[in-house]
Amino acid sequence: MPKDRSITLGVIVGNRNFFPDALVTEGRRDVLEILAERGIEPVILDEQSTKLGGVETWEDAKKCAALFDEQRHRINGILVVLPNFGDEKGVAETIKLSGLNVPILIQAYPDDLTRFSLDRRRDAFCGKISVCNNLYQYGSRSALQNSIRFFRRAMHSKPTSMTGCSATALMRRRSNAGIHSN
């Protein structure tokens, strides 16, 4: 990617309604802070458009897809953030409806086993598997190497750790990256 070109990511915050709302709020805040630190502009639903600005229903998927379609000329990639299990169909529908053909990175927050309770339970890694499976069923095919190169360039330098996300630091490890490209 040319150095003079700014990077813009379409950001989908996946949510599943029976998980604690605080996890979505924290995850959204963390990701927006990291993207700002890196000079990456997000295209993301505002918190008033849907519950907490997340995608968990067909209506949410349509709203997010319309936003992405409207901003398609700027979007270089999609970042799917899973602060909890998320709604795999909502995420896949958003990407399908948007018509974007860009690298996709799925980031899942780990459960903190020292704080493992109903109010902190995430199950995001299970959700990541489900999201990747749905993307595959919707016709996405693995493009791991191209997506990793893209997201490494997007982050420009050493990974930064995220509050509440000690294991992944947003796009840090290849083994954590369930990356697909349409």
What does this structure look like?
- The structure is a single chain.
- This protein is of the alpha/beta class and 182 residues long.
- The chain has a single domain (8-181), classed as Rossmann fold, CATH 3.40.50.
- Helix content is 37%, strand content 13%.
- It has five helices and five strands; from the N terminus they run E-H-E-H-E-H-E-H-H-E.
- It has helices at residues 21-37, 58-70, 88-98, 124-137, 144-155; strands at residues 8-13, 41-44, 77-82, 103-108, 180-181.
- A five-stranded mixed sheet has the order 2-1-3-4-5, sandwiched between helices.
- Strand 3, helix 3 and strand 4 form a beta-alpha-beta unit.
- Helix 2 (58-70) packs parallel to helix 3 (88-98).
- The longest helix has 17 residues, at 21-37.
Which secondary structure elements does this structure contain, and how are they paired or packed?
Blueprint: E1 8-13, H1 21-37, E2 41-44, H2 58-70, E3 77-82, H3 88-98, E4 103-108, H4 124-137, H5 144-155, E5 180-181
Parallel strand pairs: 1-2, 1-3, 3-4
Antiparallel strand pairs: 4-5
Helix pairs in contact: 2-3, 3-4
Quaternary structure state of the chains depicted: single chain
User: H/E order of the elements?
Assistant: EHEHEHEHHE
Q: What does the average pLDDT come to?
A: 74
Q: How many domains make up the 3D coordinates?
A: 1
The CATH architecture category equals 3-Layer(aba) Sandwich
In terms of structural class, how would the helical and strand content be classed?
alpha/beta
Sheet with the most strands, sense and barrel status: 5 strands, mixed
Tally of contiguous helical segments? 5
